[in-house]
Amino acid sequence: xxxxTLDVGGLPPFSISTDAPLWWGxxxxxxxxxxxxxxxLGMYFYLRLSVDMxxxxxxxxxxxxxxxxxxxxxxLSMVASWWASEGAKQNRRGAMLTGLIANLLLAGVFLALxxxxxxxxxxxxxxxxFGSIVWTILGLHTADIIGDMGFTLVLIVxxxxxxxxxxxxxxxxVDSIVWYLLAGAWFPMYAVxxxxxxxxxxx
Amino acid sequence: xxxxxxxxxALPSIFLLACAGHQQSAVDAAGPQAGRIExxxxxxxxxxxxxxxIVITTLLVSLSRGHRGxxxxxxxxxxxxxxxxxxxxTRSVSVAxxxxxxxxxxxxxxxxxxxxxxxxxxxxxxAMIVEVTGNQWWWNIRYVSNxxxxxxxxxxEIHIPVGRPVMIRGMSQDVIHSFWVPNLHGKRDLIxxxxxxxxxxxxxxxxxxxQCAEFCGxxxxxxxxxxxxxxxxxxxxxRNAQLQPAPAPSDPDTQHGRQVFxxxxxxxxxxxxxxxxxxxxxxxxxxxxxxxxxxxxxLPNTKGxxxxxxxxxxxxxxxxxxxxxxxPSEDLQPLxxxxxxxx
Amino acid sequence: xxxxxxxxxxIIDPRHGTNEQHRNRLLAAWSRPGGFxxxxxxxxxxxxxxxxxxxxxxxxxxGGIEALLMRTQLAFSNNTFLGPDKYNQIFTTHGTTxxxxxxxxxxxxxxxxxxxxxxxxxxxAFPRLNAFGYYLYLFGGLLLYAGLFTNTGPDVGWFAYxxxxxxxxxxxxxxxxxxxxxxxxxxxxxxxxTEIFVTVLKQRAPxxxxxxxxxxxxxxxxxxxxxxxxxxxxxxASTLMLLLDRTAATHFVNPAEGGDPLLYQHVFWxxxxxxxxxxxxxxxxxxxxxxxxxxxxxxxxxxxMVLSLVGTGFVGFGLWVHHMFATGLPQLGQxxxxxxxxxxxxxxxxxxxxxxxxxxxxxxxxxxxxYFVLGFIFIFVLGxxxxxxxxxxxxxxxxxxxxxxxxHFHYVLIxxxxxxxxxxxYYWYPKMTGRLMNETLGKINFWILFIxxxxxxxxxxxxxxxxxxxxxxxxxxxxxxxxxxxxxxxGAYIIAVGGIVFLANVFMxxxxxxxxxxxxxxxxxxxxxxxxxxxxxxxxxxxxxxxxYTMWAAPEDRAVVTGMRDDRREVxxxxxxxxxxxxxxxxxxxxxxxxxxxxxxxxxxxxxxFRFWWYFPTAVLAGIGLIGWFWPRRPWELGR
Lengths: 203, 343, 640
Description:
The complex is a heterotrimer. Chain A is an all-alpha fold. Chain A has helices at 21-49, 65-90, 93-119, 129-161, 166-199; one strand at residues 4-7. In chain A, 73% of the residues lie in helices and 2% in strands. The longest helix of chain A is centred in the last third of the chain and has 34 residues, at 166-199. Chain A is elongated, with a radius of gyration of 21 Å. The model of chain A has no long low-confidence stretch (mean pLDDT 91). By secondary structure, chain B is α+β, with helices and mostly antiparallel strands. Chain B has eleven helices and twelve strands. Chain B has helices at 2-10, 14-17, 32-63, 75-78, 83-120, 232-243, 252-263, 266-269, 303-311, 313-316, 329-340; strands at 128-135, 138-143, 152-155, 157-161, 166-172, 177-179, 188-190, 196-200, 206-211, 224-230, 293-294, 299-300. Chain B is elongated. Chain C is built from 17 helices and four strands. In chain C, helix 11 packs parallel to helix 14 (439-465). The chains are: A mainly alpha, B alpha+beta, C mainly alpha. Chains B and C meet through helix 1, helix 2, helix 3, helix 5 and strand 8 of B and helix 4, helix 10, helix 11, helix 12 and helix 14 of C.
């Protein structure tokens, strides 16, 4: 019996682009994380609207300097991630390594600034619900950032060892979409936590 | 097995049981709020029953061969009916959808209307306010007033005058409970750190049983209450009696009973106004003798039940917060006698 | 359609030699090690899907036994078969098992099994993630039952309202076990959602444009989106708010410190309401599949059906406050949720009308699967109509938290999901096992379940109206509730008999059922092109779509894909809208790392039940698992 056929032998066995299922999968997992963050922001507003004073009496609003300065390395780290992703598409090892290492270092700076800032908080997560929501948002976001930094580190090691080919390059490419989402999600959260009380009528 | 045999025999009458008047029934309204809801219920019931009958009839007809007014389609080959059939079906489905939307819209309006009506009831000049505080597993009842001497506390039983709107102010001491007296109104949750309110009113005298309707722990099943609606003069008499402190015991037996009460741990939890017992974490016992039931509707209020309860509350309501006190049997009866005398 | 052992010597693609040589190479590429340890390395969707289905079925039986225990206790007033503590653990575990360990995983398992076959591909997009999700689910279920069997089962209801479930009123580990079990099952669900989402978008047969996707795939796709937006809410409610309040002294939902019990309810029900649609929407997909095959026509109103599914998914997120009508929220808000809750009846209604139209205009064949569809229509419509009643605030205030609600949700869940599921079992059993189930026994099975179900749950409507609240371990004799309860208990035992009959049919048919062949129902979708049971690689040559029902297309219109390598696991990636081929994609082969990762993470999560700081070693363990998983092995170049 003669079968009609559609030949795909000429198509490549991979694609480092938004065509790749892995890109969609990582994108979707990033959406899951962003849903978590969005809900936590919703909770933040719910808790805020259920009291008169915000932050609660005795809690001091976090200082603005460190977190605002920290936005700079965070934004630059997104650029570094983009650079690595471009390198992955064009199979340029140098670009990949530079981009990923820069991303890791800048993320590390961001993280360090954040941890220093935590020292200055005068409220614990167990103090009251202001403390609980702020610390939980920060904790969850930090955990995600550290997780992605770990992933980036592994990619760097693989690149250095030369233990990589198409699939690992795809990994570098999709790492960027997750980073954009995780780092990008911080900007609105930063606005809410640090500017929100001033704008929405707090102390 | 007995119940199952009974059930089989009663099978036909099961559908009549819904309509029979009964305690704690949402379809046996004794007040305007419950009455409005009951009317709404029957309206919804008949409309939706009609919808159900039409849908199932259509289904059954569609299964029978004889209904085919449409030409026989050669479905085996094409797996698709003719254009004409599809168009006819499209019209039918569109009409059905439109009818559905209209019916739902009507139901929506009627429902919102009833909701507004119910919440507008009450609040008239001669309203009364009763604070109900849920506890694991009993109800603290406090009649409030602008006049401090008119405030009193009781437990597990609310009396209201027929025909007067009563605002129930609901609070909770611990977890979420729900105040529900179906003959009078729907339920209102009692949420810690919040106050919820609900208006109830009885339009005929009677005893109406209610029950906690939000799972609140081990003895949620045994957290009932009574609302007694009575004519105004009788209500006043009850209220005046409640305002009095506990009557002093008049004979040696009850005097002994009072002594037993005051010498034991009872005083750490319970209050009897007029004595030194001032505990506030358990039901107020000042007039316990006059209540319909004990242990939040668990047992009828008789001397025997009361004695049995005091002797071993954990057997009757396992897990409840009343400890088993080592009261010797010669003290138990006088204690029960004393408490029953607190009318 | 796909050439198989029917024509072993034929050559479709010279690069692959004869069909037989092609087939042998595919088998070699798609096999896994055998034996005990080999079991843990499976990554094909049929294997993992079947594990989900079997495991979920076992949990269904467990939940059913719990239900029988409950009904036995409630058979008559003042019964002492179960004391309050045992009863409270059992009803909580019943609800938790049915919602988290049976219903969602079962639908996911069916999806994992069927969707790649229906789309004409060889596996899901991320095979190892698939396996990982299964093991996490299994461990979560084991955790819950380890709790139950050591008298540490949760006892606060399947939605665990605070402050009852908080540290003050539920000391000990019971609620912690519940909360962390949720973490396991929700991560598992999110993994499956990602799988289905990406597979449906990127791995369809060429020319299977969006308007040609089988309705079941649409249903699973929409369900995946819902899972993505709903599951984070339950993780926040249980793992973040509740578990942190309990183990780390935060104050989200603890009223003593400014927390709000209603915040828990809002966040939980924001998940909880979509959850029931997550369970229900795949079942709607089953119904369409069965109806199409048993009326010999494509579903009437395909676009309307798809839009209704989308509408259900969308509107389903806007209803959650109807679980909170008794909490005293503002009237205007309540009116909005009443309107939304009624509006969802419209989109459900459209689907019912379309099925009725299909049945009306088709050539009906009443096999057992179709019986279950009819049962679904009867039971689900009844349940949906009581749902319209519940949307009304005044009515809900009377029947909320009573047995009326219990009746309602069992009607919509059992009618809406379980009956279609049984229909699906009868319908796809031949595909999964190669043999047909016994028809006579199947019809008996249906009637026993149908009668038993209605006998159990119809009287509960009456009980609710007569004041019987839910979650009570006993009731007094003067309430007049005995008769209806007795009937309900009798019905429950009848359902149990129905379950036994089903199992008997399953096991018997596996040995003596009529051989099914590839397409016993002469259905139109692509899963019927594969062998019964499917080979691990599904199709020897991937099919090209010919319209919406490729199996009903004329043979001269059908085509297959050539040029894929058969010496490794390869699938074809196609474009999102029109399924034009874009590139080939090499899938990973068998691996034990998903199991190892799930085990490590599972150990970590169990630790957090006891001490909060276990999250840190969990992260380390997860890292180890993931590194092992993704570490490249030779050869890492793909070549051609």
